Amino acid sequence: MTLHDVLRxxxxxxxxxxxxxxxxxxxxxxxxLAPQAGQQDPILRLLGFDYSGSMAVKLFFFLSGLVVVxxxxxxxxxxxxxxxxxxxxxxxxxxxxxxxxxxxxxxxSLPVATxxxxxxxxLVEKRFIAIGRNVQRRMKKTDAA
Length: 145
Hints:
Blueprint: H1 3-7, H2 14-33, H3 42-47, H4 52-74, H5 79-96, H6 102-144
Helix pairs in contact: 2-4, 2-5, 2-6, 5-6
């Protein structure tokens, strides 16, 4: 069994962990963007030296580094889009409603970032992957000729 076989989407549950990591980034950023007295990031409160957003980014990039090629080439993958859209969505919300606090920021940002990630997949990422595949096919035909 090769590493490629192990990392194939149908052989693992890493996408679930990547989605959880993307959500943890949003949760971690909510406390920084919309602070309220007495409220602290749960990971920071537990560990005392790191917060959920930082831990999640490390996990997210580790897992993504392992499976990015397989994930993008095999099936749809919205976790990366959720990660990309999470912080901008949170920033807009925090600037628009600064009094809302981190929990409200999370409640709004998680579903909005998820929808934006899905839209991003279908309107941008999926199309560019198809273009990349077409370029690869053309290059193989040219090399074979």
